[in-house]
Amino acid sequence: MDLQLQGKHALVTGASQGIGMAIAQALAAEGCHLHLAARNPQALQALAEGLSGEHGVQVHTHPADLSKAHDIQNLATACAQVDILVNNAGAIPRGSVLELDDERWRQSWELKVFGYLNLTRALYAHMVKRQAGVILNIIGIGAERLDYGYAAGSMGNAALVALTRTIGGVSLDLGVRVLGLSPGWVETEKAKRTMRQRAATLLGDENRWPEMAQDFPRGKLIDPQEVADVATFLCSPRAAGMSGTVVTVDAGFTSRGYPPPKPGTT
What we know:
single chain; 7 helices; alpha/beta; 7-stranded parallel β-sheet; Rossmann fold
């Protein structure tokens, strides 16, 4: 299927690793020219050179801390004419309301919650003027599977779901599609750190972390490419009828109330 993305211009934040990198690679494979933003300039440059060389697309890098209003404004100015915005930068730490202090809570929300909001506001204004564009928010299943031990993440993700639906329910009347994608447990460095901690605590060996996913769907974490493929479709004209929707890519994790029964049991 031709996703009709050839020659489009996309901005992907948090592009230096994990899901953001996978989305950048998938968009480049479809012929999208890219703007890549993240804090690590060396990783961005290496990715840009690889994508440009492999796919022949234009790739611009923007080292930036998107928890900072100044960096968001500079990025929005440089990327005002992009066709696609993928909000992906952000890492909210685990912890209950009693464990996370105010500084860590606010710092994580400045990047993921207010970072998404402020970059969306800036680029959405340009898209509305052109009557064209797509904004995709990479959110997370914490919004659906509320977790006492992930209080800031559950609440922050829920806010981003509300942001997506609030704007996306009307935006298509103005020529712009606003969508969300909530990944489950994806094999990123952040997820593996959490799994290693659990393996060290429960199994006495952090290197046994893959065993911590044995009750997950398929017995493993989701590959970033599986998320990127869905994201690329959502950004494409093939999904022209979709706006104000949040798509979950979790291999069924959120729908599992309890671990499945072991073979031979009921």
